[in-house]
Description:
The complex is a heterodimer.
Chain A: H1 7-36, H2 43-57, H3 67-91, H4 107-118, H5 134-164, H6 174-200, E1 211-213, E2 219-221, H7 227-236, H8 257-281, H9 285-310, H10 331-344, H11 359-370, H12 381-401, E3 406-407, E4 410-411, H13 414-440, H14 442-446, H15 453-467, H16 482-511, H17 528-562
Chain B: H1 2-33, H2 35-38, E1 42-45, E2 48-52, H3 89-105, E3 129-130, H4 132-137, H5 139-145, H6 150-163, E4 164-165, E5 176-178, H7 179-188
Antiparallel strand pairs in B: 1-2, 3-5, 4-5
Amino acid sequence: MEEPVSSREFGQLIFFLVLLIGLTPFIGGWMARVFKGERHFLQVPLGWMEKLIYRLGGVDPTEEMSWWQYAKIVLAFNLIGFLALLGLQLTQAWLPLNPAGQSNVELGLAVNTAASFVTNTNWQAYSGENTMSYLTQMMGLGVQNFFSAATGIVVLLALIRGLTRKTSTTVGNFWADLVRTSVYVLLPLCFILALALASQGVVQTFSAYPTATTLEGASQQIPLGPAASQIAIKQIGTNGGGFFGQNSAHPFENPTPLSNFLELLAILLLPAAIVYTYGVMVGDRRQGWSIYWAMFVIFIAGLGVALWAEYQPNPAMDSLNWMEGKEVRFGTMNSVLWACATTVTSNGSVNAMHDSLSPLAGGVAMFNLLLGECVFGGIGTGLYTMLLFVIITVFLAGLMVGRTPEYLGKKIEAFEVKMSMIAVIAPSACVLIFSALACYLTAGRAALGNNGPHGLSEILYAFASMSNNNGSAFGGLSANTTYYLWAGSVAMLIGRFAVIIPVLAIAGSLAAKKITPPSPGTFPTTGPLFVVLLISVVLIVGVLTFFPALSLGPLIEHLLMQTGHTF
Amino acid sequence: MNTLAKTFRFFLVLTFLVGVVYPLAVTTIAQVFFHSQAEGSQLVVNGKLLGSALLSQKTGSPKYFWPRPSAGDYATVASGASNLGPTSEALKEAITDRVAKLRTACHVSAETPLPDDMVTTSGSGVDPHITPAAARLQIDRIAAARNLTSAQKEQLAALVTQFTEGPQLGFLGEPRVNVLLINVALDELR
């Protein structure tokens, strides 16, 4: 019954990976020019826009900021975004551009959705086509897709300046970082992708939902909206929140194999390329590539396990080729590749339902979330999270040889290690505490869509996804219920800002330090030895924290499935 | 407070760019160059809106090709998936039930394996496609329901071949048949 991966499917996979690696230096190098404020080709057509935004926005793009000034503006910018999105949802019925007549969103759902889109999580406890007006989608959700992605990048830029500046009190200018990221990187890429998607059949219109009369005489409403423009940034900005409820499984979001390929590439393109950007910006490309390969190895290992698992027959169901929750035009390989890509990055969009994946494939997706979204991760956020692991790694290496640890010539001291640990522990603690509470509370268990170990997986996946700002779901869980709405909102905000603040604090602390030239006792942070050590640290932290929970969810479900057990 | 006010002004300017200018620019260009796709690939037959080429619709008559089962019963606002896992008793029962019904309807013996897409629900709930095997499986049933002659039945088989889309650009995605489009062509078959 076992069906091996066909050569065509294997060919698509290899083509995808080669293209991704091949594009990395080009996109990454170009981003480095943009972020460093050097001359680049887009300044000719778009430079006026950058200057106009500074003038209309009344900001000075040259003023240098301390880490705390920078952090204050990050927080203010996100607070305003949160309130604006909340306000739009609560009043959309009275505002224009609402041809489908959506009512105002209820408070709990509106708060959850605002927290979700501001934190780049894009967890959705609703379906867009029967909840959100075109105005809310376009000026609320779509805008936060851009801003949350840009926020991730600017925080990373501050950290990079912390690493490269000598005895400095400043980490850069928030306004310039945010505007350059938006105008030169996100907008042009989204513009191209949106039009490519529209050519494939992704809808982009302000028309009302027309009603068709089907072949058999029934009436069928056709949901529409300005989707292509939003789906482009949803994929490129590691956001993942669908315009429609079924996300990129929906034919209006992802109509063809080509649209699927482009959306898949867009998931990983910037999170991968920015690692190269990092190497350029710290003046040593090997530093970037070492981190890149550590990420790549973890991604490929998980992908291998997930593909293997998904092609195994299911003894509990004697089904040939598991198509539950998948779309015919994509098939198994494209569904599993997407599931892995969307969970290592903090994207969270789906083209197949993760709840219906085989236990181990779903388990790999969940484990990817639990690693803290540091394997490529969100654009910016993924790399700064990985840099926290790098700090922990050089600290451990320093302990082993009994020398003061350093990274890129900066001494790593108690403050940096403490901040890194806070940022690593906070989301993990949210996952475990809120999951345990959900198991304990009747309201937590009543929301389950599956029984047995798969039920625990639904809870665990939900909080893994929200606490690590991913946004994908085991969709059987009724997320639009009081406990999950409010606990989820708290988890998403902690998972975002309890990492951003420590990262900016580290940036400030490192910027103030001298850069000491490498000595023979310096632990090298490039090369295979470092890559293996970094992978080990990431995996050990993940496994130590979550193995007991994972063994009661996906692992035991896999074993019981082999005996034909159902629940 | 000064920071908040300053950030608010900046927020408004940038919102205008990415929340108004950008989506309107994309809409304008998409409407000009990809009008039909941007409006949802609407299918108009004899002046009446029949549906969208990208959304499956509920079709139970034995005279037509059937789409894949839908967990949301082909609802479009909103559509849905089963979200049932690989050890779900409810899913096992649903699949067993669908297998039995499909075997009876298509006169297939218990030994013949069925195309998996016809007994499982899709991710979108409105998957517009079935596999070529699933289309071929239904030829006999449709021919019987329409009292087709053997020559007409051959035309029907040719139709399935004609409507089978290969991998896009020769290597992307899976071979598939669009159910609504082939059903429209089926009605025009003489």
